[in-house]
Design goal:
The complex is a heterodimer of chains A (176) and B (388). Chain A is mainly beta and 176 residues long. Chain A has two helices and eight strands. Classes of the chains: A mainly beta (176), B alpha/beta (388). Zinc ion (ZN) binds next to loops of chain A.
Chain lengths: 176, 388
């Protein structure tokens, strides 16, 4: 590899000139997001501390957040239902490094929580417990953030252990 | 439909490093392309079309980089095509190029994939908040760590397996002059005592962030007959996709990966991949993905992949060497990483892999995956021309 300084040295009149190797050009992204009718219902129910889901009429799987259609069957999912605020940790990791622009303090426990009655996991933070005690199969419940109640999943601060016995692995094995 | 057999006659790579400050993106891809042409002993005029691939544009912040790369890749006056399938893109780009040759659309095709991570922030690019999820995913490691934990829990694999894979791949990389990481002083103990980034994934079990490019020259039977060095023949190639999230998705062993492998084996007439393949270049950005993919790709029964690792089967001198090049764990120019796997598989069956050559390798698999373990691309290459 030839260094930039070596390249410049070969050009008469540029020897000794500080080479330009990097120019930083900041980029910013701002999105206007159209959630569609299914997610609109889901998001507007969050400030009332309600978790709305949809069931596929064909495969009967329950999706939360709902998307108005089943990704497997490719058909509309008109049947709505409300889910409880309790669920099971199906898997998790402890994040020790911060991602730029992510508004969470490290370390944090990032988990998949399978709400009771749902067939896909919700991405959530587990709190109010030592991370060493978090485990697959653990029963948890939502803790709402009274100051941030709004049409966003930030309405849920985190999930905390309920203290119930761990769930039967068969109840969540297929639904991460 | 009758297909032309496809041959790999040129392979070129850059030396993968943390930051190539001496070249622009155009200079980087040009370097790989020139090396692939030199390997094939062909000139720009011999190339009929160019197929280029890379990971998401906002990694480097250069939107549609293929527009400005046309002249650097000798594509002026020729068809040029851009492919994108997240981390698997290097593989799918090579397959798109191979299909153009197989279909008889073009005689000889140059395909190039790249990433210049030193000019990007991939962790930021992969952690953009979306309104329907809690913003908790910290880069690719944060996304995949829970699935690694699920694998460990499901199979009861001992903790040491992840560090064994990382240590093996980093040692293999010492034999590959193009590999980014050459950690001569690394020990298994150091891997095991490196910090947890996304528990259960440690620092030394994680791929580096690299600048690099890879290029291949693909041609048909007539081109292969004229080529100076032994070609690698494509015996099978396939891509498969599935949604990021659906009820019943198996993140540990995705259906799309299993289907993709089965398709490739069927095309190549392979019925027992463990015995019939001589080397595998597998996309393993986090070490635990080696045992996971060993199962997904049919080299081991469900829950048994880690036992092959533990028994040394995937070591350079084992009976199924995995990532003799050092793999993604030793070099990760994201967009190029899949094509490097395909290229390294080709080098093995051409007998041109140098110090990391597996003696007598005649059939090898190149594998790549990307997105939320939802895009898969693979090819199986051999020393012999396929029968039909
Ligand atoms: Zn359905």
């Amino acid at each position: 590899m030839t260094t930039a300084a070596e390249l410049l040295a070969g050009i008469p009149g540029l020897a000794g000139v500080e080479p330009v190797t990097r120019v930083t050009i900041p980029a910013r992204l701002e999105y206007t997001y159209s959630p569609g009718s299914a997610q609109t219902r889901f998001l507007t129910a969050l400030p009332q501390k309600r978790l709305l889901a949809e069931r596929c009429p064909q495969c009967t799987r329950v999706y939360v957040p709902p998307r108005g259609a089943c990704p497997t069957c490719g058909i509309a999912t008109p049947e709505q239902l409300e889910l409880p605020h309790t669920g099971t940790v199906t898997t998790f990791c402890i994040v020790n490094i911060a991602a730029k622009g992510l508004d969470v303090e490290v370390p944090y426990c990032y988990a998949y929580v399978l709400l009771d009655g749902a067939h896909v996991g919700l991405h959530a933070r587990i709190g109010d417990t030592p991370y060493a005690d978090v485990r697959i199969g653990q029963r948890v419940e939502a803790v709402w953030d009274e100051r941030r109640l709004g049409p966003s999943l930030a309405s849920i601060s985190h999930f905390r252990p309920t203290g119930e016995p761990d769930a039967d692995p068969e109840s969540y094995r297929r639904w991460m | 439909m009758s297909k032309q057999p496809v041959a790999v006659v040129g392979v070129g790579q850059t030396k993968h490093v943390a930051a190539r400050q001496d070249v622009s993106i155009a200079g980087l891809v040009r370097e790989a392309a020139v090396r692939a042409l030199a390997d094939a002993e062909l000139g720009w005029a011999d190339i009929d079309a160019v197929v280029v691939g890379k990971a998401p544009d906002f990694f480097e912040g250069v939107m549609m980089p293929e527009l400005y790369l046309a002249e650097a890749l000798g594509a002026v006056g020729k068809p040029m095509l851009r492919v994108h399938t997240a981390g698997s893109v290097g593989g799918s780009t090579a397959l798109v190029a191979a299909n153009l040759v197989a279909a008889g659309v073009h005689g000889t095709v140059l395909t190039v994939a790249f990433e210049k991570q030193s000019e990007s922030n991939a962790m930021w690019g992969l952690s953009l908040p979306v309104p329907f999820q809690q913003p908790l995913t910290a880069g690719a490691g944060g996304f995949f760590a829970p699935h690694v934990r699920a694998y460990m829990r499901r199979t009861g694999a001992p903790d040491a397996v992840g560090s064994m894979v990382a240590f093996k791949d980093r040692r293999n990389a010492l034999k590959n002059p193009y590999a980014h990481l050459h950690e001569h002083d690394l020990t298994l103990e150091r891997v095991q005592s490196s910090p947890m980034l996304w528990d259960p994934i440690r620092y030394s079990e994680t791929c580096p962030s690299s600048d690099g490019a890879c290029a291949l020259v693909l041609t048909g039977e007539r081109g292969a007959a004229r080529t100076p060095r032994p070609p690698a023949w494509v015996h099978g190639g396939a891509m498969r996709s599935e949604p990021t999230i659906f009820a019943g998705k198996d993140y540990v062993s995705p259906q799309a990966g299993r289907d993709c492998a089965a398709d490739v084996y069927r095309q190549a007439g392979v019925t027992d991949p463990r015995r019939q393949l001589d080397a595998v270049e597998m996309y393993v950005p986090f070490s635990w993905y080696e045992p996971m993919w060993l199962e997904n790709l049919g080299f081991a029964d469900q829950g048994e992949g880690w036992k092959l690792v533990e028994a040394g089967v995937t070591e350079m001198d084992g009976d199924l060497p995995v990532n003799p090049s050092g793999g993604v764990l030793s070099s990760n120019p994201i967009g190029a990483s899949g094509m490097i796997r395909f290229a390294e598989a080709a080098l093995q069956v051409r007998g041109l892999a140098g110090e990391h050559q597996i003696d007598g390798a005649r059939r090898a698999l190149g594998h790549a995956y990307g997105g939320g373990a939802q895009f898969f691309s693979m090819w199986l290459v051999g020393s012999d021309r396929p029968d039909r």
